[in-house]
Write a structure and sequence with these properties.
The protein is mainly alpha-helical. It contains eight helices and two strands; from the N terminus they run E-E-H-H-H-H-H-H-H-H. It has a two-stranded antiparallel sheet with strand order 1-2. The longest helix has 66 residues.
Length: 233
């Protein structure tokens, strides 16, 4: 800032900008303009994207509505046709009347059969639901027992393939044993002794450690003997 004295009065006069200052001011203005333009462009892109999404959702809704209207029209046409043929009532009642006519029995007989079948289906569904819940509880209990000895076991997916199948047979009650039976077989040193003249004797009893070291094929081959051996452990 410069001072200019005129007739005893001091007047402040702004200093002229240097070229460097002018360039810096111009650069800041350009960046500010770019920022504003970028913000406006981003807002416009978001608005366009939202508009396209709304249009797609609207088209999807229209398609679903058109399909529903067509099904309703088909149903009404069928209902009118059946009523013209002497059938009346709800869809289930009309179905009973058609079945009764085709089989030559009373509508009440058909209705009782339908209700009985529906009741049985409901009972089976409820039973399957309880059975599934019970299996989950049993497996959870098995996992807790196994986890006490093998802390790495947390969930069903941590158990080896075949565990659930073995426990489902009911022949093995101990989940830890079932788990150990399916564990990968540990490598055992090969005997260097002479086998000349040695006869192969098929075992009838296996210890717990022997079962642990069996492969899956060996467990499958000796399954019944393993079950019998378990009673003596």
């Amino acid at each position: 800032m410069l001072e200019n004295t005129t007739n005893g009065a001091t007047v402040e006069v702004a200093e002229p900008q240097t070229q460097t200052q002018a360039d810096s001011t111009s650069e800041v203005a350009e960046k500010s303009a770019e920022s504003v333009a970028s913000s406006q462009q981003s807002a416009e892109e978001n608005a366009k994207f939202a508009d396209r999404r709304r249009k797609q959702e609207l088209e999807q809704t229209r398609g679903q509505l058109a399909a529903a209207n067509k099904r309703l029209a088909d149903y009404q046409a069928l209902e009118n046709s059946l009523k013209a043929s002497g059938f009346n009532g709800t869809a289930a009642e009309i179905a009973d009347q058609i079945a009764a006519s085709a089989r030559g029995v009373s509508v009440e007989t058909i209705r009782e059969e339908r209700l009985s079948q529906q009741q049985q289906a409901d009972i089976r569904s409820e039973r399957d639901m309880y059975k599934a819940e019970l299996n989950k509880m049993l497996i959870s209990a098995d996992i807790e027992k196994i986890k006490a000895k093998y802390p790495d076991i947390e969930v069903l997916e941590d158990l080896p393939d075949g565990f659930v199948d073995i426990m489902a047979t009911g022949k093995i009650k101990d989940p830890v044993l079932a788990y150990e039976m399916l564990m990968p077989k540990k490598d055992t040193p090969v005997s260097t002794g002479s086998v000349k003249g040695k006869e192969t004797i098929e075992k009838e009893f296996f210890t717990r450690d022997e079962v642990k070291n069996m492969s899956r094929s060996e467990i499958k081959k000796n399954y019944e003997k393993i079950i019998a051996s378990q009673k003596k452990w």
